[in-house]
Amino acid sequence: MTTLSINAERLLGRLCDLGQIGRDGDGRLVRLAGSDSDKAGRDAVVAWIRSAGLEVTVDRIGNIFGIWRTADNADEAPILLGSHIDTVIDAGIYDGCYGVLSGLEVIETLKAAGYAPARPVAVAAFTNEEGVRYAPDMMGSLVYAGGLPVEEALATVGTDGAILGAELERIGYAGSEEPSLIRPHAYVELHIEQGPVLEREGVPIGAVENLQGISWQRITIKGEANHAGTTPMSMRRDAGHAAARVVTFLRDRARNANTPTVATVGCMSFEPNAINVIPSRATFTVDLRDPDEQRLQTEEAVLAAYLEELAAAEEVTISVERLARFKPVTFDRGIVELVEEASRKRGLASKRMTSGAGHDAQMIARIAPSAMIFVPSLDGISHNPREHTPDADLVAGANILLDVTATLAAR
Amino acid sequence: MTTLSINAERLLGRLCDLGQIGRDGDGRLVRLAGSDSDKAGRDAVVAWIRSAGLEVTVDRIGNIFGIWRTADNADEAPILLGSHIDTVIDAGIYDGCYGVLSGLEVIETLKAAGYAPARPVAVAAFTNEEGVRYAPDMMGSLVYAGGLPVEEALATVGTDGAILGAELERIGYAGSEEPSLIRPHAYVELHIEQGPVLEREGVPIGAVENLQGISWQRITIKGEANHAGTTPMSMRRDAGHAAARVVTFLRDRARNANTPTVATVGCMSFEPNAINVIPSRATFTVDLRDPDEQRLQTEEAVLAAYLEELAAAEEVTISVERLARFKPVTFDRGIVELVEEASRKRGLASKRMTSGAGHDAQMIARIAPSAMIFVPSLDGISHNPREHTPDADLVAGANILLDVTATLAAR
Q1: Which of A58, A135, A217, B199 could form an SS bridge with B376, CB 3.0 to 4.6 Å?
Q2: Per the CB < 8 Å rule, is B229 touching A274?
């Protein structure tokens, strides 16, 4: 038996075409959820789904489904492939789109080859994964998985004041189906890694076995503003210095622990922010991630204890605001093993790994066995026009998705 | 012999009156150099100088002198007392004004008591000490001491676009005398401490023996922006973390050294300043001060070496921009001892100390023996409406200035 493969030219061509839709006046790729450019991107994807002979369904939150059903399998729960096509501001062309277009590509390939699946196979493009215009992110898949009432999601007010439900109506993507209409038998999402691990290790396929839990906090330290020249070191209550202590504490702890914990302080501001005034206030964010919920809780507790100790030692007051918290997600071991097996058969190295970013798959994992496949991101760059994955890796990843889908759909 | 003392009611009343001149619509005290409110403050001071029967002279940079000369001492170099009456935005009422009004008070007291000085005694109000509208600060005394050509100073463009020379003309304080007209025999400046040392130690009089050297630098660290979730700790080039390392390094070094070195990081900013992005750039300021030039140079060199080491260890690039650099000033030992002696005689505790802030005295020290007298600042607060010194301390300080002046003027 010859190994079936996807049509590389068609997949790469569509990725490139979709990547040209939604350029702003400065040439930046911007397709925010519910916008005119989102509509243009959706229209292109729907046209490709129709041209593949699939049935198109749009649910109330605007999730698009392209379903390949046969008379023999119409009553079975489908294998669902997918991701999203909305983007950040000044995006690359791969994030999300690669998963949606590869899902469609896999279905077209199987269909054209005369493959007779035991289950329907469907591709999904979920609404508002990026969360740039409407919070929370991963909204479409969250609603789909029953984690957020559709009415509440539709009532969300965007950063520009526009209501999501009205925007979906306006662009013609407020569907009539309940978001829960299709309960998948399994879900597989192919995605660029958005991190440097696969490229640096020279491994083309990531078999994503879990997704990190995320803890976001905003920390405010209050000290006392004073003259930088006249206040002895021993009499200072320096909020900026205390904030710096937290940054180095988190870094040293995460760096020296032999665990996958990552800790990041991305935002920082001092007040009054004057060269000759000791900072009275420092505000910063802490982003903690770990694939293990118990360890994530431990890291949160260790930080809280450190802050208490620091407040006493530096005579500052510290307040903490929780901004977001997601538990880690463990993907389906069976699907992960299928990814590894498919890679072996195609002579491709694979690596079990953790997703550091959030993805639609983490929502779908609530209702169906799910997993992800990663391909390398050059220099780990994403959410940036420099986002890039070599064509050979894109094609390899889609072929692994093809093999995994064929196996899953045969059962 | 009864000890002569200043007229407390007159001094405190004038301080209060001057403090009401130049309130803005929000009630904030703002008398920026060359402004209408500066004119109003100057007019009040000149009126008080005239009412004391002194000769008023204004030089080309707008410095105001009130001179008490007698037929017997007219050829001698004068004892000069003084400070400034311009303010920061939202200022307290003591900074600068206390020194000018006390200088006038001392002269009036000596004159009224029939004291016959061997030298003229003069009070000066120097232009633009604060440097808020026009840079550099301490401009009037710098020009007076020959450190900046008067033409260059007059051509300075303010933050609001107005030229200092034109503004002085406009408010009637562009004098005709060359700034160097009066070469003082000695200079004494009475000032609030603007720091917490005297208050915390319960000492009413500071005998200021030197003034810290100041080194201001802006440091920019460039790393690499990357996803906070997908970039392992070992693969990060985190500019924010590197900046935090510098903050804690400076603090630990200054805190643990048994020296008067102070180090402050007052300004800090991260880019892109997003919660889930590793900072690609951190920009911050370093304010280093030390009364000893050799030690200040050592601290600068130690920081430079640390930055080099840090750049290599963290794979970041670091650039340093020098913003300001003043050498330390050593005041005249003889005058400092007179301050101590006068305090002893009045039964007041005194403490030799270093000025952490810059003052006009540091400029005058270039051309004449100079020193300063400090009185306590509650909580060390200054440049703030909460700036406060108890009346008893204000009166005590002015009496010490009286005694020191009488001794200096007798020689």
Answers
A1: B199
A2: no
